[in-house]
């Protein structure tokens, strides 16, 4: 709730600026303070006051808000609105705080004359309604339904009684009993869609029990009566920005569950973020797979054919030690380079190779070179 304060706090400041219109206020002004912000009188009348009227007229605009986390109440600003408005406000808040499915409204007929307050219309069996006026339902909020049907509610607008159990109007001229037909009216308002598949062809609002149909679009359905979002698939109340439609849930954001085009909300780490991998482990695993693939693909290692490669490696291994860590020169024409550039020995040309044989650190390095350099055919 906001916390209005007196002018004493404002007078301690050398400069005061309105948090709505950003106008510099006189030092001796008496601005209203809402959430540590100063609001001038003009903005209270033109910006804040209309919020209360909108909330009183439409539940969708309730509560009146200063921000997403600060709700406003007319009780905090006694000079802004008259006492009559605050009385109507508290009645409306009582209505808003009652679940929609349990709200009871006066069903009695009233006569509305042009330019006059509504008048009670006599029952048809008593006297015909006067001409020149329009009849309509009173519609005043009475309270919540109750199991105890012996308690009658008296409408404050038309001063007539209503059964608290079924919501039917009561008359002193007849005895009332909650009939099966009357109970059926308050039980469900979706009789016209009976036989359809719930969650696919229709859904019932969890707040007011009204039926809803979704032809296409998002499965987060908005009920203007209850001022809530609910899931069209399962029928439970769920905020539009909740995790109800996250990946892994039973209810997709779009289309039907199990459908090929069902779409769920993406997790935060799927919006471009990728979990880091263990580079070391992957590299070792990749090297292991490389060796395995090379062993399987090389025909010379099958059926004992690998002995020839071992002999060739030993020939290269027996060559004089060379500085293998020395900086290599840019490659030239492969085996046609000078021996100094390759870092090899002339005498290492023995074996089935044509040209020079490089010096290797181990057999694995030799094997890798051997598999990528097919020996030239020997001259016959």
From TrEMBL:
Gene3D superfamilies tied to this protein: 1.20.120.1750
GO molecular function: ubiquitin-protein transferase activity
GO biological process: protein ubiquitination
Residues covered by region (Disordered): 257-349
UniProt protein name: RING-type domain-containing protein
Compositionally biased spans, kind Acidic residues: 266-303, 314-326
SUPFAM superfamilies xref list: RING/U-box (SSF57850)
Origin: domain of life: Eukaryota
Coiled-coil regions listed in the entry: none
């Amino acid at each position: 709730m906001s916390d209005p304060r007196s002018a004493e706090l404002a007078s301690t400041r050398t400069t005061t600026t309105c948090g709505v219109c950003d106008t510099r206020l006189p030092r001796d002004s008496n601005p209203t303070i809402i959430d540590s912000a100063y609001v001038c009188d003009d903005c209270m009348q033109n910006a804040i006051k209309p919020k209360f009227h909108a909330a009183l007229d439409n539940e969708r605009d309730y509560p009146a808000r200063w921000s997403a986390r600060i709700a406003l109440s007319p009780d905090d600003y006694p000079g802004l609105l008259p006492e009559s408005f605050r009385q109507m406000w508290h009645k409306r808040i009582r209505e808003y705080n009652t679940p929609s499915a349990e709200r009871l409204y006066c069903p009695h007929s009233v006569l509305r004359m042009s330019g006059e307050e509504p008048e009670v219309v006599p029952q048809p069996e008593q006297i015909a309604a006067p001409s020149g006026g329009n009849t309509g339902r009173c519609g005043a909020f009475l309270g919540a339904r109750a199991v105890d049907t012996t308690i009658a509610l008296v409408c404050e607008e038309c001063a007539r009684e209503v059964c608290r159990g079924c919501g039917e109007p009561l008359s002193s001229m007849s005895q009332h009993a909650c009939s099966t037909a009357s109970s059926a009216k308050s039980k469900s308002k979706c009789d016209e869609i009976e036989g359809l598949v719930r969650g696919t062809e229709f859904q019932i609002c969890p707040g007011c029990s009204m039926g809803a149909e979704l032809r296409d679009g998002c499965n987060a359905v908005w009920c203007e009566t209850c001022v809530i979002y609910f899931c069209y698939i399962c029928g439970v109340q769920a905020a539009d920005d909740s995790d109800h439609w996250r990946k892994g849930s039973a209810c997709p954001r779009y289309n039907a569950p199990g459908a090929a085009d069902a779409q769920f909300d993406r997790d935060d780490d799927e919006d471009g973020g990728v979990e880091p991998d263990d580079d070391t482990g992957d590299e070792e695993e990749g090297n292991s797979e490389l060796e395995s693939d090379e062993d399987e693909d090389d025909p010379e290692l099958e059926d004992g054919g690998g002995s020839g490669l071992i002999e060739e490696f030993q020939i290269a291994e027996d060559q004089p030690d060379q500085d293998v860590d020395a900086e290599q020169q840019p490659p030239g024409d492969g085996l046609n380079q000078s021996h100094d550039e390759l870092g090899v020995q002339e005498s290492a040309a023995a074996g089935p190779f044509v040209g020079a044989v490089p010096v290797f650190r181990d057999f694995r390095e030799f094997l890798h070179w051997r598999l990528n350099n097919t020996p030239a055919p020997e001259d016959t």
